[in-house]
Specification:
Elements (H helix, E strand, L loop, with lengths): L2 E5 L2 E3 L2 E10 L10 E7 L6 E4 L1 H9 L3 E2 L1 H10 L1 H13 L4 H83 L1
Helix pairs in contact: 1-3, 3-4
């Protein structure tokens, strides 16, 4: 039986998540499977992958063929590297301890780069928020100046109207007194 490591589609429209399963190559995409070894959620930033490392490594070593997307996921998680290192141990190129040391060094550098990426995203997000706040403050200042200008014009117009009314009253008071 030819086995594949592939993704099953679950979730709703435009918001899918994918269990990673071992299935017979003849089975339908979302149909019967042998074992579920993890999940992949591309809706988060960065994408969330949960994986049973030992079972994934076992299935890759016994010959299960991953699809292109799953191969990429397994490579990013280190399953393919560990398979490669175990092959070197079987051939006698280096010892099991050396293989584990190399894998641990790779995993540490991978985690460091992921954390750096997350920090960069967080910094960019805070910088964008700061820029939006500054733009809004400038917009509010301009609006406040415009409102103050309109209020000043309205107040000046009211004062001028009141002054004209007083002058008219004074002129009326003088006019009957002059007769």
């Amino acid at each position: 039986m030819a086995t594949k490591i592939r993704l099953q589609r679950h979730g709703r429209k435009r918001y899918a998540f994918y269990p990673i399963v071992i299935a017979d190559s003849r089975a339908p995409r979302d149909g019967r499977f042998i074992e579920r070894i993890g999940s992949y959620n591309p809706n988060t930033n960065p994408a969330t992958v949960t994986l049973n490392f030992e079972r994934a490594l076992y299935w890759v070593e016994v010959g299960a063929q991953p699809t292109d997307t799953v191969r990429s996921i397994l490579s990013k998680e280190g399953v393919m590297l560990m398979k490669h290192l175990r092959g070197g141990v079987k051939k006698g190129a280096f010892t099991e301890e050396e293989a584990q040391r190399r894998f641990d060094a790779w995993k540490a550098s991978k985690e460091k780069s992921v954390e750096a990426g997350k920090a960069k995203l967080a910094a960019k997000k805070s910088e964008d928020a700061k820029a939006r706040l500054e733009a809004e403050v400038e917009k509010n200042k301009a609006k406040a100046e415009l409102v103050a200008k309109k209020k000043a014009e309205k107040l000046a117009a009211e004062e001028a109207a009141a002054k004209e009314a007083l002058e008219a009253e004074a002129a009326e008071a003088e006019a009957p007194a002059a007769e």
